[in-house]
Specification:
Elements: E1 4-6, E2 18-22, E3 36-40, H1 41-53, E4 58-61, H2 64-74, E5 87-91, E6 95-105, H3 110-129, E7 132-144
Parallel strand pairs: 6-7
Antiparallel strand pairs: 1-2, 2-3, 4-6, 5-6
């Protein structure tokens, strides 16, 4: 299968932030290459967020304020999960770049876990989208200590 990945500038189209995979046209082309597939930036961000969270030693994604707002956002019905919290992506014609803010568990090697996250994110994004991941930048925003409890919801602990 030979897909061409194309993207048009944000000012020239309403579906900006979407990567397009174009196949060959015509009756002589294989069926799986006829037509166009588009991949939104949000899809790449979700894939990268899920892949990063799968790595043992990653406690959470997002810096302090992003985690706080994300926790509030998750409580709103229909808002979806915070899979993309702490994830930023840039998607070009054939390539993608990923930036992650992570919170690691205390005691893990940050260098080792960063390598594992990069490997997992690159493999997942490239396998699922066909885009080449040129870089995965990781910012360690915090270390989760064993004695730190998760922030309890405001209504928890009052009356049971």
């Amino acid at each position: 299968m030979t897909d061409n990945i194309t993207s048009v500038g944000a000012a020239s189209r309403p579906d900006a932030g979407v990567s397009a995979l174009r196949g060959r046209a015509g009756t002589g082309a294989p069926a799986e290459t006829r037509g166009r597939t588009t991949i939104a930036d949000g899809v790449v961000a979700k894939i990268a967020g899920m892949a990063a969270r799968e790595v043992p030693g990653i406690h959470n994604l997002g810096a302090g304020m992003a985690r706080a707002f994300g926790a509030m956002r998750e409580r709103v019905p229909g808002s979806g999960g915070g899979v993309t919290r702490g994830v930023k992506v840039e998607v070009g014609e054939r390539q993608a770049a990923v930036d992650l803010d992570v919170v690691v568990e205390y005691g893990v090697s940050i260098v080792d876990i960063a390598g594992d996250v990069r490997t997992n994110v690159i493999n997942a994004v490239e396998r699922m989208t066909g885009l080449e991941v040129v870089e995965v930048n990781i910012a360690v925003a915090d270390v989760h200590l064993p004695d730190e409890e998760e922030e309890a919801a405001p209504d928890e602990g009052r009356v049971r």
